């Protein structure tokens, strides 16, 4: 009778992988962990220029469920991350990765949730955006969240958070060298992609540019839904 | 999500995943026993179902006086979309003029969704698949082929997703109006995120109103519940001439044929 749901997932993942490899987009690179398995991807995220994460090379593992794209993938950082929305074990906690079941946090904040039109690209762009704009509303790493707030509220005078991030970014350089990757550090290089389609990528670039750390408290750009809407620091609702 | 008093909340446990795993098991059990859309069935299947239930038996009889037969759909939370899609596409096989109107609407619908901020790349994928099936209908493929498509999970779910997106797009476009009908403090966008876009979320009046409006397809729904002697017909939109008829029993939609 009906074919298994997995065949739909295979089709969707093949299509996404092909598209991303043919038209690499700013900020990340992907490849399969193992060529025979479309359901596990290795991801490298580049830290956005003009933020604490500039020049960072962060590796993560993406795992897709058999009923993708009806259910979301999960993302786990392999690189050590000190971030309010990343658990100690690397699991990323962001509303877009929330399965579409009723959850106790719903209704607390407007936020982007998983739906079958979300994809690898929208997820990774949300995570890049999250790096520099943590959500401290319900953090995955409470200590990191408290430290981040101190840093932000002191307008950068309390350096504890900043120092940890810079140290972690510094530590990723070896890994980048080992992989033979040159991490883009200027906006021009960061955004270069082969022939981006204007309708598709115009929104991506805009978001982190005006969000240099230190003055990111009020982000009033009203870009498209790919990003969580920001209201103070609580734009990315946490799970 | 733990129920009071019955469960100890374990912060290390991922309850969402557990819920999902359980849902998948239930879905599998349903999937093993039921087509997404059945063949045309005689009303005797409903008479058997309600053999012990005098109230419902009466209603089945009243249905029988108005309709010839029915098709059942799988009870997976997507039944409204699947029933609507199949019943309407089946109708289009015999109505070239209506097909031309709908093809135009369907083909333009993608741009509206992209303009609302849905990711273009994935929208295109769903839209292309939707149009592929629409064009099969336009080429007047055999009814068996359409039936096969709706029972092929890959295609069938893509069609459901696209119909859900059309509903979400319409609700968001007409947010000023529809926000009056959303319960609680949710915005229309949140409502769409939580109640329209995810697979398996059941449909209410607001979904039906939006889908009939955005597609321009009028629907009659026969409500079969405990009250009264007969089923109650309701047309969406009110006063229109319905193209298709659906049977509603609490929580579920099937297709009716005259």
Automatic annotation (TrEMBL), chain A:
GO terms for molecular function: ATP binding; ubiquitin conjugating enzyme activity. The active site is at 93 (glycyl thioester intermediate). Residues 190-239 are annotated as: Disordered. Pathway: Protein modification; protein ubiquitination. Gene3D superfamilies: Ubiquitin Conjugating Enzyme. Residues 207-239 have a biased composition (Acidic residues). The keyword Cell membrane does not apply. SMART domains: UBCc. Pfam families: UQ_con. PROSITE patterns: UBC_1, UBC_2. Keywords: ATP-binding, Nucleotide-binding, Phosphoprotein, Transferase, Ubl conjugation pathway. Residues 8-174 form the UBC core domain. PANTHER family: UBIQUITIN-CONJUGATING ENZYME E2. Belongs to the ubiquitin-conjugating enzyme family. This is Ubiquitin-conjugating enzyme E2 R2. It comes from Lingula anatina (Brachiopod). The gene is LOC106168959.
UniProtKB/TrEMBL annotation, chain B:
One of its GO terms (molecular function) is ubiquitin binding. It comes from Lingula anatina. PANTHER family: UBIQUITIN THIOESTERASE OTUBAIN-LIKE (PTHR12931:SF15), UBIQUITIN THIOLESTERASE PROTEIN OTUB (PTHR12931). InterPro entries: OTU_dom (IPR003323), Otubain (IPR016615), Papain-like_cys_pep_sf (IPR038765), Peptidase_C65_otubain (IPR019400), Peptidase_C65_otubain_sub1 (IPR042468), Peptidase_C65_otubain_sub2 (IPR042467). Residues 68-258 form the OTU domain. One of its GO terms (cellular component) is nucleus. Transmembrane segments: none annotated. The keyword Hydrolase applies. Its EC number is 3.4.19.12. Keywords: Hydrolase, Protease, Thiol protease, Ubl conjugation pathway. The keyword Hydrolase applies. This is ubiquitinyl hydrolase 1. The active site is at residues 76, 79, 252. The lineage of its organism: Eukaryota, Metazoa, Spiralia, Lophotrochozoa, Brachiopoda.
């Amino acid at each position: 009778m009906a074919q298994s749901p997995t065949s739909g997932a295979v089709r969707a993942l093949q299509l996404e992988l092909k598209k991303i490899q043919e038209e690499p987009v700013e900020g990340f690179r992907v490849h399969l962990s193992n060529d025979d398995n479309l359901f596990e991807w290795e991801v490298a995220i580049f830290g956005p220029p003009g933020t604490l994460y500039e020049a960072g090379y962060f590796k993560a593992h993406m795992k897709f469920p058999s009923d993708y794209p009806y259910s979301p993938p999960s993302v786990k950082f392999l690189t050590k991350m000190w971030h309010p929305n990343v658990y100690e074990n690397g699991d990323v906690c962001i509303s877009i990765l929330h399965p579409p079941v009723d959850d106790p946090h719903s209704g607390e904040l407007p936020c982007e949730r998983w739906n079958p039109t979300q994809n690898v690209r929208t997820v990774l762009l949300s995570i890049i955006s999250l790096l520099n704009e943590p959500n401290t509303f319900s953090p995955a790493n409470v200590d990191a969240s408290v430290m981040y707030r101190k840093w932000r509220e002191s307008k950068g005078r309390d350096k504890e958070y900043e120092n940890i991030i810079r140290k972690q970014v510094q530590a990723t350089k070896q890994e980048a060298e080992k992989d033979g990757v040159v991490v883009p550090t200027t906006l021009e290089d960061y955004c270069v992609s082969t022939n981006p389609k204007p309708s598709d990528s115009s929104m991506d670039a805009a978001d982190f540019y005006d969000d240099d750390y230190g003055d990111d408290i009020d982000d009033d750009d009203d870009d498209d839904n790919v990003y969580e809407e920001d209201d103070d620091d609580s734009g990315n609702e946490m799970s | 999500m733990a129920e009071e008093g019955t469960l100890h909340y374990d912060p290390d446990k991922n309850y969402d995943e557990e819920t999902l795993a359980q849902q998948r098991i239930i879905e599998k059990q349903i999937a093993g026993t039921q087509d997404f859309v059945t063949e045309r069935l005689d009303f005797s299947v409903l008479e058997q179902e309600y053999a012990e239930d005098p109230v419902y038996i009466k209603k089945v009889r009243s249905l029988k006086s108005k309709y010839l037969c029915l098709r059942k759909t799988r009870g997976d939370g997507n039944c409204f979309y699947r029933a609507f899609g199949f019943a309407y596409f089946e109708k289009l096989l015999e109505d070239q003029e209506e097909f031309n109107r709908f093809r135009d609407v369907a083909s333009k619908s993608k741009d509206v969704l992209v303009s609302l901020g849905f990711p273009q790349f994935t929208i295109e994928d769903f839209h292309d698949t939707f149009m592929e099936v629409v064009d099969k209908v336009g080429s007047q493929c055999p009814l068996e082929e359409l039936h096969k498509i709706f029972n092929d999970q890959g295609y069938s779910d893509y069609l459901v997703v696209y119909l859900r997106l059309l509903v979400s797009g319409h609700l968001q476009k007409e947010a000023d109006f529809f926000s009056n009908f959303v319960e609680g403090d949710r915005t229309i966008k949140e409502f769409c995120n939580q109640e329209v876009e995810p697979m398996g979320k059941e449909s209410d009046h607001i979904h039906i109103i939006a889908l009939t409006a955005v597609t321009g397809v009028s629907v009659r729904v026969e409500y079969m519940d405990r009250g009264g002697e007969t089923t109650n017909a309701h047309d969406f939109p009110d006063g229109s001439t319905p193209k298709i008829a659906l049977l509603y029993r609490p929580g579920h939609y099937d297709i009716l044929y005259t």
